[in-house]
Specification:
With about 70 residues, the chain is mainly beta. It has a single domain, classed as Roll (Ubiquitin-like (UB roll)), CATH 3.10.20. About 10% of the residues lie in helices and about 40% in strands. The protein contains 1 helix and 7 strands; from the N terminus they run βββαββββ. It has a 5-stranded mixed sheet, with no helix packed on it. The chain has a two-stranded antiparallel ribbon with strand order 3-6. The longest helix is centred in the first third of the chain and has 7 residues. The radius of gyration is 12 Å and the shape is globular. The chain starts with a strand and ends in a 5-residue tail after the last strand. About 10% of the residues are buried.
């Protein structure tokens, strides 16, 4: 499956994947992230139910603590 994440093309070996599974691969915690899937914001409660398909475009923003 080929998708675009934050402007970069990504080739995934899995034929099926959800937003939650993709965040896990990138080691991004759901509670500190915002995901736009094909130009629509995905509610956190829907991450596990939002399936990705080849050609999809995602923008992922996550917050990092620091000082």
């Amino acid at each position: 499956m080929n998708i675009q994440v934050n402007g970069r093309r990504v080739d995934l070996q899995q034929p099926r994947m959800t937003v939650a599974e993709l965040l896990e691969i990138y080691n991004i915690q759901e509670r500190i992230s915002i995901v736009e899937h094909n130009k629509e914001i995905v509610s956190k409660k829907d991450y596990a139910h939002t399936n990705l398909e080849s050609g999809d475009s995602l923008e992922i923003v996550h917050f990092v603590g620091g000082g």
